[in-house]
């Protein structure tokens, strides 16, 4: 399978059991048992240590996904040992190359240069690949942010990484963190300009308590899921047409004469786009509150230098992530840092 490296983004919010707003500094004090006088720089260092230590816990494995995370510390095995995770207290980030991959299947490892050199790989053995991540944990705020790279739909740890981050930031006084999808506005605009609208899907649950008088069998269920799919015909719609098209559809009704429901009242609305460059299709949930779609960012044209195995050059990817974080993402997610103080 050819690689098509990409970046996916996400945010997560600390979820204290009593307080509405608690920071990563509070987490370090309450859950990591650090001094109340701890500095912001030390908060990041302690959270980094906790992040690495937690890779040895059950949080780093998912039995449903059959995938795990870790950092391979043996230089003789880890080809990117010099880029393993570290932290930067000046901008409150943790970043680096992490290992992750699937387990749970019986496999065979075969040497392409020697047909006699084969060995069995049991279900308890994981096949770990290399992934770059970037994590922002501001000591003075309750929302964190991450970027995680993947190479294809198969070579991905995005879901596992999101679960890992939200799970480790819980404890005696904290529920697990609440994740939300996110992509920088500039990338959303860029994606929408080159995307074609393929279909919109509306889903809802119906509990039909209206008694029938037309002799319908009593065996017919009165609870069911409804899925309505709308596909444009006649001409292609670009991504920018999605919102007005959705508004037009949302006022349509579904149901019986006695009970109707507008499509905008359905429980879920999703939109499928086809990327104009890669021709790949991706479905996004429509955020009715913010009216946003959350695309991924393909690295082609942004980080073109690659390693021998087809993964992006991690040093170049590191520079790219830091640049877009500093120039585009941080001003978006922390506008409070850019407000001029009134004299």
Can you describe what's shown?
This protein is α+β, with helices and mostly antiparallel strands. It has 2 domains: 6-109 and 118-183 and 296-338, no CATH class; 190-275, no CATH class. Helices cover 20% and strands 32% of the residues. The chain has 6 helices and 18 strands. The chain has helices at 24-30, 40-53, 158-168, 185-193, 242-250, 314-333, and strands spanning 6-16, 61-62, 67-70, 86-88, 93-102, 107-111, 114-121, 129-136, 143-150, 174-181, 195-207, 223-230, 237-238, 253-255, 260-262, 268-275, 281-285, 297-298. Strands 1, 2, 3, 4, 5, 8, 9, 10 and 18 form a 9-stranded antiparallel β-sheet that branches. Strands 11, 12, 13, 16 and 17 form a 5-stranded antiparallel β-sheet that branches. The protein has a two-stranded antiparallel ribbon with strand order 6-7. The N and C termini lie far apart (59 Å). The mean pLDDT is 87.
Compact overview of the structure:
With 343 residues, the protein is of the alpha+beta class. The protein is built from 6 helices and 18 strands.
Note the topology.
Blueprint: E1 6-16, H1 24-30, H2 40-53, E2 61-62, E3 67-70, E4 86-88, E5 93-102, E6 107-111, E7 114-121, E8 129-136, E9 143-150, H3 158-168, E10 174-181, H4 185-193, E11 195-207, E12 223-230, E13 237-238, H5 242-250, E14 253-255, E15 260-262, E16 268-275, E17 281-285, E18 297-298, H6 314-333
Antiparallel strand pairs: 1-9, 1-10, 1-18, 2-3, 3-5, 4-5, 5-8, 6-7, 8-9, 11-12, 11-13, 11-16, 14-15, 16-17
